[in-house]
Design brief:
By secondary structure, this protein is of the alpha/beta class. It folds into 2 domains: 197 residues, Rossmann fold, CATH 3.40.50.720; 159 residues, Dihydrodipicolinate Reductase, domain 2. The strands form 3 sheets. The chain has an 8-stranded mixed β-sheet with strand order 12-11-7-10-9-8-15-16. The protein has a 6-stranded parallel β-sheet with strand order 3-2-1-4-5-6, sandwiched between helices. It has a two-stranded antiparallel sheet with strand order 13-14. Helix 4 runs parallel beside helix 5 and helix 8 crosses helix 11. The protein is globular. Bound molecules: nicotinamide-adenine-dinucleotide. Nicotinamide-adenine-dinucleotide binds next to loops. The site of nicotinamide-adenine-dinucleotide has 22 residues, from loops. Pfam families: GFO_IDH_MocA. It comes from Mycena indigotica. This is GFO-IDH-MocA domain-containing protein.
């Protein structure tokens, strides 16, 4: 890695995940100073990244964002260079400013997309077609057909395209993935992930309109299940069911079609045995109780032929009780915000950080000619090609809810004669 050139990076989206700034102030979630900006500033300090830029929709937000970063990153960690170019320029409002921001980059630069779900596909495609390496947050796309298009575009332009499924880098999850391989044929998987009702206030502008809680939260564990079962089983049929009534009532008043809790039931078929079939149940909710002591409740269960695995990602055996706020369970294995003994940022081993660093390392090694994008598919990383079934299941779930029917996932020949995944 020592001889690789530094890479320039554009952050698309200036919100909670990128900066921790949510328009009214710092986020009240577990990401008060964000993840992407902080990680890239630290990777610049460590010599992997060079120039940075950021694009949102409303350029008028940048003075407040810069002040928030200066106080909470510059004022807390030593040696952080917080400089970046901003788009739209001059405080303008422009939802297509990402185009100019991408055009300003040299091919081989990195583009990291944390914007609302329906915008991932057009921004990613625009960047890939101009020769950029792209990291897209989950859900990569809402439609399977868009995901397939991004796979083809990334291949054509020979760029790295990863989906930011950071849970694959959680040490407990990646160890569990390896152990699952020794448990024989797959039989049953169930996952629960939820956030407290107050998130409906935070997500009000898009909840139920532009996306749903299954895309937002179940994307995480559907991807983990697809990763565990890669090359061993395939999903064939999805049936979805939803609970409603809380999000659409007082005081949240979300649009009438907003679901509270969505469950997808998925049939899986072994690719190595004629006899074995499995069932997976993925549930996500944004109407979980307040004051549960965690921001995201999240746990899953895997059963194979010869054993089972249980993981509780929300309770890590580490809790803190404060008189005013009660007991909270924290997860420093994701993002560790407390500084090092020298006063520098100290979270380089957190899987939120590692996930972005792996992408930056992959893009730099392709630029240096020491790796090809296909190498990362072979390594089982969350590349756009390796995550296609995650999108297939999420998209099938949405159709199942809307059309009240089972949706089938199949292989079919495309117009150019290549086999690809489709929904029926
Ligand atoms: N916040 C989290 O904890 C988290 C975790 C993992 C993934 N995600 C994903 O991140 C995405 C949203 O990011 P967030 O959580 O920071 O949300 P956010 O609402 O705080 O920020 C979204 C940002 O996107 C910008 N944006 C909207 N349209 C744009 C466009 N056309 N061009 C450029 N920027 C545009 C907005 O200006 C805003 O800055 C979602 O896809 C979500 O699933 C969020």
């Amino acid at each position: 890695m020592a001889n690789l050139s530094k890479i320039n990076a554009l952050m698309c989206g200036t919100g909670e995940y990128t900066t921790g700034w949510v328009g009214t102030g710092a986020s009240k979630s577990d990401k008060k100073i964000g993840v992407v900006g902080l990680t890239l500033f630290d990777l610049r300090r460590l010599g992997k990244v060079d120039q940075l830029s950021m694009v949102g929709v409303n350029g008028g937000k940048f003075p407040a964002i810069r002040q928030h970063l200066a106080e909470n990153i510059g004022g807390v960690y030593k040696d952080m260079d917080l400089s970046f170019e901003e788009y739209p320029e001059g405080g303008k409002v422009d939802p297509e400013a990402y185009k100019l921001a991408i055009e300003k980059l040299a091919p081989g630069s990195a583009v990291i997309i944390f914007t609302p779900d329906p915008t991932h596909y057009p921004i990613a495609l625009y960047a890939i077609e101009r020769g950029m390496h792209v990291l897209i947050t989950k859900p990569a796309t809402q439609l399977l057909s868009h995901h397939v298009e991004l796979i083809e575009a990334a291949k054509k332009h020979n760029v790295v395209c990863f989906v930011e499924h950071h849970k694959r880098f959680d040490p407990a999850y990646s160890d569990a993935k390896a152990r699952a391989q020794a448990l024989g044929e797959f039989n049953f998987f169930s996952a629960w992930m939820s956030q407290p009702k107050l998130q409906l206030e935070v997500f009000k502008s898009w909840a139920g309109k532009d996306s749903d809680i299954s895309y937002y939260l179940s994307s995480h564990h559907i991807d983990i299940c697809c990763w565990i079962l890669q090359d061993r089983a395939v999903p064939t049929r999805v049936v979805a069911s939803a609970a409603t009534g809380i999000a659409t009532g007082e005081p949240y008043n979300c649009v009438p079609q907003t679901e509270d809790t969505i469950t997808l039931m998925v049939d899986w078929e072994s690719t190595t045995s004629d006899r074995h079939r499995g069932t997976a149940v993925y549930t996500a909710s944004w109407t979980a109780p307040l004051k549960a002591g965690v921001h995201s409740a999240q746990h899953w269960y895997y059963m194979g032929e010869k054993g089972d695995i249980t993981v509780d990602q929300a309770h890590r055996g580490y809790d803190v009780t404060v008189d005013e706020t009660g007991k909270m369970w924290y997860n420093p294995f994701y993002m560790k915000y407390s500084p090092s003994e020298t006063g520098h940022f100290d979270g380089q081993r957190g899987y939120g950080y590692i996930s972005i660093e792996k992408f930056i390392d992959a893009a730099r090694s392709v630029n240096a000619g020491s790796a090809t994008p296909a190498d990362f598919d072979a390594h089982g990383l969350p590349t756009i090609a390796n995550t296609v079934l995650t999108t297939a299941i999420l998209n099938a779930g949405r159709i199942s809810l809307d059309e009240k029917r089972a949706v089938f996932i199949k292989r079919a020949l495309s117009e150019n004669g290549a086999e690809q995944w489709v929904l029926e």
